[in-house]
Write a structure and sequence with these properties.
This protein is of the alpha/beta class and 306 residues long. It folds into two domains: 234 residues, Aldolase class I (TIM Barrel); 55 residues, Alpha-Beta Plaits. The protein is 29% helix and 21% strand. The chain has a nine-stranded mixed sheet. Strands 3-4 form a two-stranded antiparallel sheet. Helix 2 packs across helix 4 and helix 8 runs parallel beside helix 10. The longest helix is centred in the middle third of the chain and has 13 residues. The protein starts with 8 loop residues before the first strand and ends with a strand. The chain binds S-adenosylmethionine and iron/sulfur cluster (SF4) (3 copies). One iron/sulfur cluster (SF4) binds next to loops. Keywords: 4Fe-4S, Iron, Iron-sulfur, Metal-binding, Oxidoreductase, S-adenosyl-L-methionine. This is Glycerol dehydratase, cobalamin-independent, small subunit. Belongs to the organic radical-activating enzymes family. GO terms for molecular function: 4 iron, 4 sulfur cluster binding; metal ion binding; oxidoreductase activity.
Length: 306
């Protein structure tokens, strides 16, 4: 195996410590920026653009004007200081550094594998006791495949368990390159019907379904995850289609059902974007147990949440 490149850089938008979700034991979740999908319900809209970007919180702006002169490309307006012309913005972050109230903040920073390791190491004693480790999430972690691979290799070198939340929308070569370094793959399947998938995520699901088979054949443990979204896949038929697909993946025994929530809505506002789900209510709690039964009737284990 090639030596680990600890200087490999990636764009990380969050590191969450002490998570008890997204893999076994206590986990540190490292969120990588960039995603080729545009799921209408995505709870992390700041994850989608591969580069760092600005959040602007109007209610925190005191109109001091300190952000205006530091912008090298005049992407901020005199009349509405925090409003960002996102086509002009070169993501330098100077305005966020100048802002005294954090009305402007930058999401995403370039980190090396070594820098992420130093952060993750703070939880390492909990990994040993709980069988936990690191989970790569996003965004789509496979969009930064070189960084993901080197980070996963470095974690294995430390003896830490690795997991990845992915939708697998990438090339077969990247699956073959990265997935052998993942102990637990949490594989999202959002819809089997190609038209439904395209209309709600912006991409064809053929690659995803083919790569799900490749992932199942490459990874040590794979769980299929389904965000259950009203009007998209919250019917017994849609869930049964996903269950039947999961059932034929080698080694897959478990499906997680995640009910749609609108927790990410406010972040769309901070990015000056409209929320694609409008006022769609969160999936009611009683909608999931019957769908769980559908999965179980296919001979699979099913967990609500995950
Ligand atoms: C933020 S995604 C990151 C991983 C990858 N991009 C994906 O979608 O699988 C992590 C998990 O959150 C789920 N998710 C995203 N938005 C959601 C929402 N509004 N409600 C419920 N689950 C959501 C995804 O389906 C996925 O299982
Ligand atoms: S991030 Fe840089 S380019 Fe973008 S608005 Fe702020 S100062 Fe201007
Ligand atoms: S520096 Fe911050 S508080 Fe001052 S005008 Fe700019 S966004 Fe508003
Ligand atoms: S694949 Fe995941 S990160 Fe990408 S848009 Fe969909 S939910 Fe968001």
């Amino acid at each position: 195996m090639a030596p680990i490149n600890y200087d490999q850089e990636g764009v990380v938008f969050d590191i969450q410590r002490y998570s008890i979700h997204d893999g076994p034991g206590v986990r540190t979740i490292v969120f990588l920026k960039g995603c080729p999908l545009r799921c209408r319900w995505c709870s992390n809209p700041e994850s989608q653009d591969p580069k760092p970007e600005l959040f602007y919180k109007d209610s925190s702006c005191i109109h001091c004007g300190k952000c205006l002169p530091v912008c090298p490309v005049a992407a901020l307006s005199q009349d509405n200081p925090g409003f960002v012309d996102r086509d002009k913005c070169i993501r330098c972050g100077a305005c966020a550094e100048a802002c005294p109230t954090d009305a402007l903040t930058r999401s995403g920073k370039v980190m090396t594998v070594n820098q992420v390791l130093q952060e993750v190491r703070k939880d390492a004693t909990h990994y040993r006791r709980s069988g936990g480790g690191i989970t790569l999430s996003g965004g789509e972690p496979l969009m930064q495949s070189d960084f993901a691979r080197e980070l996963l290799k470095a974690c294995h070198e430390q003896g830490w368990n690795t997991a990845m939340e992915t939708t697998g929308f990438t090339t077969p070569e990247i699956i073959a390159d990265v997935m052998p370094h993942v102990d637990h793959a949490l594989l999202d399947i959002k819809a089997i019907d190609p038209a439904v998938h395209m209309a709600n995520t912006g991409v064809d699901n053929r690659i995803i379904l083919e790569n799900a088979i490749r992932t199942a054949m490459t990874s040590k443990s794979v769980v299929v995850r389904v965000p259950v979204v009203p009007g998209v896949n919250d019917t017994e038929q849609a869930i049964s289609d996903i269950g039947n697909f999961a059932k034929m993946l080698p080694g897959v025994e478990t499906v997680h059902l995640l009910g749609y929530h609108s927790y990410g809505e406010n972040k769309y506002g901070l990015l000056n974007r409209a929320y694609p789900m409008g006022d769609t209510p969160d999936l009611p709690k009683d909608a999931l147990p019957p769908l769980k039964k559908v999965i179980e009737s296919l001979g699979l284990n099913c967990m609500i949440g995950g």
